[in-house]
Amino acid sequence: MTREMIPYLMIGFFSVFVSSVSQTMLKKASMKERKSFIREYLNLPVILAYGMFFGSTLLTMLAYKKLPLSMSPAFESSSYLFVTLFGVTIFKEKVGRRKLFALLLILAGILIFTL
Predict the structure, then answer these.
(1) Cβ neighbours of residue 115 under 8 Å, at least 6 residues apart?
(2) How many CB atoms lie within 10 A of CB 81?
(3) Which of 1, 11, 14, 45 is most buried, by CB atoms within 10 Å?
(4) Residue 84 contacts by C-beta under 8 Å, 6 or more apart in sequence?
């Protein structure tokens, strides 16, 4: 990996972070009862979340200007870490031993892949 690639690598991981935040926003919005079917999809949190998904896609395309496509497994795998972190902190979800072991395997795979 060259020095020129490092900013694009950071953009790629930021893209996954933004996508994970938008997924969390959609989950939070889905927990709120709406008066009509239309209001479930046409409300500010949902619209912002889909806008963030779109922005995340643009950031990913920017990252791949200088990064090889072979880096995509590392980006995509990191989303599991972000989503689990948000689930634990925002939704108070529990992380069992199996899930923790799986997350450690994902993290190890990302580290091995990027080295």
Answers:
(1) none
(2) 16
(3) 11
(4) 93, 95, 99, 103
Q: How many CA atoms lie less than 13 Å away from 28 in the CB half-sphere?
A: 20
Give the residue carrying structure tokens 């020129």.
4
pLDDT tens figures, 88-110: 999 999 999 999 999 999 889 88
CA–CA separation, 50 and 47 (whole Å): 5
Q: Residue 66 and residue 63: Cα distance in Å, rounded? A: 6
Rounded CA separation 17/76 (Å): 10
Instruction: Give the pLDDT of residue 91.
Output: 93
Query: Rounded to an integer, what distance in angstroms lies between the CA atom of residue 61 and that of residue 50?
Result: 17
User: What one-character DSSP code corresponds to residue 31?
Assistant: T
